[in-house]
Please model this.
Amino acid sequence: MSDRKKVTLPALFSKVAQAEPITMLTCYDYPTAHLQEQAGIDMILVGDSLGMTMLGYESTLPVTMEDMIRHAAAVRRGAPNAWLVGDMPYMSYQPSVETAIRNAGRFMAEAGCDSVKLEGGAEMADRVAAIARSGIPVIGHLGLTPQSVSALGGFRLQGKGAAAAKKILDDAKALEDAGAFCILLELVPDRVCQLVTERAGHCIIMGLGSGPHAHGQLLIYHDAFGLYPKFAPRMAKVFGDAGAVIRDGLEAYVREVTERTFPGPEHWFGMKDEEYDELSRMLG
Ligand code: KIV
Model:
């Protein structure tokens, strides 16, 4: 297992102070978490995007707290030292402040998360404040917020016009004032991300598809490694085509089993002659 030091809040803020970009990826399972830990990823988001990437839904809306806790706990087992973020799924925080605190607490107590993330701006400031007051570090999420995809008119760039951009800046201020230690900006223009980052006080700004000016970058693991079959978003560079590697391997497996070239003697276990002879006698 990895011997790196646990990523803490002071360590993240120290990266920001030293203008060192923070690395963040989504992750949903134990083996991938192990690889991300080995690669030294600073922050891991167990996103409710797992509804689409892992469970094959059309949106993130059907994802439950039980889904999230199970996947977050698996990721924690694989990545004990990364800063782990549990993504609060649809309707786990919207109904009330109390619901939000209870479900945020579940991520910490049952999955070993270091913080939680929720979507929304000023209208969610009371949830953010209450969770932060409970001692749980909170991340806000602005711009393209997939739980509101229907209201936003689809998975598309947000904050293109001046008024919409101003609302993102106001929402970022409201979230920071409410106690968010970090804000994720998803799919907003680069200059909007730059303005939010420049105006942030004691708040880390992470960008996803929002240009180079944030304090760090987040990508969805499945997009970055060729593992999501339905769609390849422009914002995600493919850093390695794991999908192609696995597909080639699967084709080779089918071929070798079909042609009886697998398994080879190095893949099976024999039995001593005397034991086999004894077995034959027992069977008559
Ligand atoms: O669920 C998720 O992975 C997210 C990212 C899209 C930011 O919220």
Remarks:
- The CA atoms of residues 21 and 216 lie 5 Å apart.
- The chain has a mean pLDDT of 97.
- Residues 162-178 form the longest helix (17 residues).
